[in-house]
Design brief:
Elements: E1 2-4, E2 10-14, H1 33-40, H2 57-70, E3 75-79, H3 82-85, E4 86-88, E5 93-94, H4 96-111, E6 115-119, H5 127-133, H6 139-156, E7 162-167, H7 171-178, H8 189-213, E8 218-223, E9 228-230, H9 235-258, H10 263-271, H11 280-288, E10 293-297, E11 302-305, E12 324-325, E13 333-334, E14 339-340, H12 344-356, E15 362-366, E16 371-372, H13 387-405, E17 410-416, E18 430-431, E19 435-438, E20 444-447, H14 449-460, E21 462-464
Parallel strand pairs: 2-3, 2-17, 3-6, 6-7, 7-8, 8-10, 9-11, 10-15, 15-17
Antiparallel strand pairs: 1-21, 4-5, 11-12, 13-14, 16-18, 19-20
């Protein structure tokens, strides 16, 4: 079976600054939250690999751009590392060495015919702001972030037309303050929701700035909603899935796209003592300055069933008060990553967005296949034969294109990732790239089989499955 790919449908790839750059040229005091976590808990990162070297993109970025040009990649998404952009975060003193590096990367991409799509914060909150203001707990950090965005837009807005305020804005505080899985392991559900709100508020403020300055282009955010499937048709399982959707998906979708939080959501926050006390002025700002578009990251489904046990009211609130996770028997698994493989999430998420947010323009900002020990799949020419990745992309992209045929306003697909890169704790354990990063040979770049296949997809505009 063959599916035509619309001519203007984006076929790109993504990474982030902190997951690729390495610390070459980084100055004292420029640690991000991720850098500090790596220094504090190096032992939890696979084989001790982390952001200190990463893919050494700071030095070797042109090699990556050359490969992008070779495979005729049309779009590349990455981030600017807020923690490295300044030498003084309150005075907003730009580190010209780092800012010039961003200039060189953007200029190199444009020269190669690759459109840069830039995220302002991909988990790169400066440690200084975490220490002094408790990070996104503080409206002071919101204001400093807007000042940062203003400088970035002024400097690079002539060449960058697609901006994102955050990548997966729910993740850091969920891992730290809700689930207490990551350093500094502080359980604080109210702070979790406050961070959610302040990132939404920051997004609205940045959009306001962008529009008032009259820049050409658009501003969105990259969310990581999970397509929620109830275990059964029972009203209890259906309600459990609804609550999950409220707390993890609509917590950002509704205010960023519709400009409002649902009354049900607000009431749940009040009842569970996680209300974030917005002012009328803040809610009005969120109402007026909704996103121009969204990036949507998709990897696996979320299966939910009704909670079987009474909630212990003396423990901190967690949304699992309303649901339990459910493992579908016989599901297909990515055994390296421990995630279910279910390509239909692409179609179902597209239809969810079409039904609930019909005026929204969006693209898949991440989707990809992580594989452990990829070296075992090398051929005689030392090229990784990652047919499993080709199959994964093909199945998911096919479902996405089916949704486009059925009216979804999806304008593209961005593969995670362009090169192998560091992930939190996972480090380089599972590889996601079209391009191998050889850790034993000075971060040498080697195209995998999937890289040439992706090039054919881009040039021929036909998906064979």
């Amino acid at each position: 079976m063959s599916r035509p790919i619309p001519k203007d449908f984006i076929l790109g790839a993504a990474t982030s600054a902190w997951q690729t750059e390495g610390w070459s040229g980084k100055k004292d005091g420029q640690d991000s939250y991720l850098d500090e976590w790596f220094k504090k808990e190096n032992f939890v990162w696979h084989n001790g690999e982390g952001p200190d070297i990463a893919t050494n993109f700071m030095v070797q970025y042109q090699e990556d751009i050359d490969i992008m040009q070779d495979i005729q990649l049309t779009h590349y998404r990455t981030s600017i590392n807020w923690s490295r952009f300044f030498t003084d975060y309150e005075a907003c003193t730009v580190d010209e060495d780092y800012a010039n590096h961003i200039d060189q990367v953007i200029d190199g991409l444009v020269a190669a015919g690759v459109e840069p799509m830039i995220c302002l914060e991909h988990y790169e909150l400066p440690k200084f702001l975490s220490d002094k203001y408790d990070g996104w707990s503080s409206k002071k950090v919101v204001e400093l972030y807007v000042k940062y965005a203003a400088i970035v837009f002024e400097r690079y807005g002539d060449r960058v037309k697609n901006w994102f305020t955050f990548n997966e804005p729910i993740v850091v505080q969920t891992r730290v303050y809700l689930d207490a899985l990551r350093w500094p392991h502080e359980q604080n559900s109210k702070r979790w929701m406050l961070w959610n709100f302040h990132k939404t508020l920051a997004t609205a403020k940045v959009i306001k700035l962008f529009r008032e300055k009259g820049y050409e282009g658009r501003v969105g955010c990259i969310l990581n909603p999970e397509m929620v499937y109830p275990r059964s048709s029972s009203k209890e399982d259906q309600a459990a899935a609804h609550y999950y959707d409220l707390f993890y998906n609509r917590v950002f979708f509704d205010p960023m796209v519709l400009g409002t939080y649902s009354p049900e959501f607000m009431q749940l926050c009040i009842e569970n003592d996680i209300y974030f006390d917005p002012t009328e002025e803040e809610l009005a700002l969120i109402k007026q300055y909704t996103v121009d578009f969204l990036g949507v990251n998709q990897y696996y489904p979320k299966r939910i069933k009704a909670q079987r046990f009474a909630w212990a009211e003396d423990q901190p609130f967690h949304p699992t008060k309303y649901y339990e996770e459910f493992d579908l028997p016989g599901r297909q698994m990515n055994k390296s990553r421990g995630w279910e493989i279910y390509p239909q999430i692409m179609y179902d998420m597209a239809m969810y967005l079409t039904e609930n947010y019909p005026d929204l323009t969006w693209l898949v900002a991440e989707n990809g296949m992580g594989q452990e020990n990829e070296q075992q799949f090398k051929n005689a020419d030392n090229i990784i034969q990652d047919d499993y990745r080709i199959e994964f992309i093909s199945q998911h992209l096919s479902q996405l294109l089916r949704a486009v045929d059925d009216g979804a306003r999806c304008e593209g697909y961005m593969l995670w990732a362009f090169t192998d890169c560091v992930s939190p704790m996972n480090a380089f354990k599972n590889r996601y790239g079209l391009v191998e990063i050889d850790l034993d040979d000075h971060r040498k770049r080697v195209k995998k089989k999937s890289a040439d296949w992706y090039r054919t997809l881009i040039t021929d505009r036909v998906l064979d499955i």
